[in-house]
């Protein structure tokens, strides 16, 4: 369907590249399969997973490939001067969803509406979602509003879908909880002798440990010496392998 229908309609370059952060990736991995396919279907959406539907083969006598394309975009309206945390698809992408791609096996939009505290829910989404989905993410229970573009009732009342999220009352930014996993990075010192990059990774969970993959984007003006890498955890140095 390219940019004619489905979630890919929202992928407007001038909006994506002017966001606070964007990242595109293609993941390819070999997987075991039997000698025949179930299907090879076109894929649609921001995060496209398992485009090749295969049957696993325990003996791994045959090998095939799985392709997964992802696009991650971060919009920050509050710090950009608009002063509101409300958002909508049209506000972010200057477009709305008008139809689903008929070749897609599934096409869904998930909105995180998990309560941030014990008070009454502060978030309101419109139009009403087709269903709700609950999952455990990093030890916390999450609730998602699900919009299934393949549902016939979704486009019955309107020719377009513009998912909107509004706060029922103004919320102070200080009330927002700190993520379980978060990080910060800064450049210290100066020159090649004392200059350094420091990355701090925090885990605020009271008892659970998480595996972390750290990908560093090094500024062009810094020259790194790998033998100077140090890793300190709880005040003790861990020698990297």
TrEMBL record:
It holds the Pfam family Gpi16. One of its GO terms (biological process) is attachment of GPI anchor to protein. InterPro entries: PIG-T. One of its GO terms (cellular component) is GPI-anchor transamidase complex. Coiled coil: none annotated. Signal peptide: none annotated. PANTHER family: GPI TRANSAMIDASE COMPONENT PIG-T, GPI TRANSAMIDASE COMPONENT PIG-T-RELATED. This is PIGT transamidase. The lineage of its organism: Eukaryota, Metazoa, Chordata, Craniata, Vertebrata.
């Amino acid at each position: 369907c390219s940019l004619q229908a489905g979630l890919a309609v929202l992928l407007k370059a001038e909006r994506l590249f002017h966001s606070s952060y964007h990242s595109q990736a293609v993941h390819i991995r070999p997987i075991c399969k039997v000698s025949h396919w179930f299907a090879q279907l076109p894929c649609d959406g921001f995060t496209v997973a398992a485009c090749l539907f295969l049957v696993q083969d325990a003996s791994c006598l045959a090998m095939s490939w799985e392709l997964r394309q992802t696009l991650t975009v971060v919009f920050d309206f509050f710090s950009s001067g608009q002063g509101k945390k409300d958002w909508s698809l049209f506000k972010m992408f200057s477009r709305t969803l008008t139809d689903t791609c008929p070749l897609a096996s599934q096409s869904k939009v998930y909105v995180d509406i998990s309560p941030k505290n014990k008070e009454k829910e502060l978030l309101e989404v419109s139009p009403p979602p087709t269903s709700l989905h609950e999952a455990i993410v990093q030890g916390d229970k999450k609730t998602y509003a699900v919009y299934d573009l393949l549902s016939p009732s979704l486009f019955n009342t309107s020719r377009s879908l513009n998912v909107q999220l509004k706060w029922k009352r103004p919320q102070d930014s200080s009330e927002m909880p700190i993520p379980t996993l978060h990080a910060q990075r800064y450049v210290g010192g100066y020159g090649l002798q004392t200059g350094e990059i420091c990355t701090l990774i925090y885990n605020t969970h009271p008892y659970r440990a998480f595996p972390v993959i750290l990908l560093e984007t090094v500024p062009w003006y810094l020259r790194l010496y790998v033998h100077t890498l140090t890793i300190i955890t709880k005040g003790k140095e861990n020698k990297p392998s």
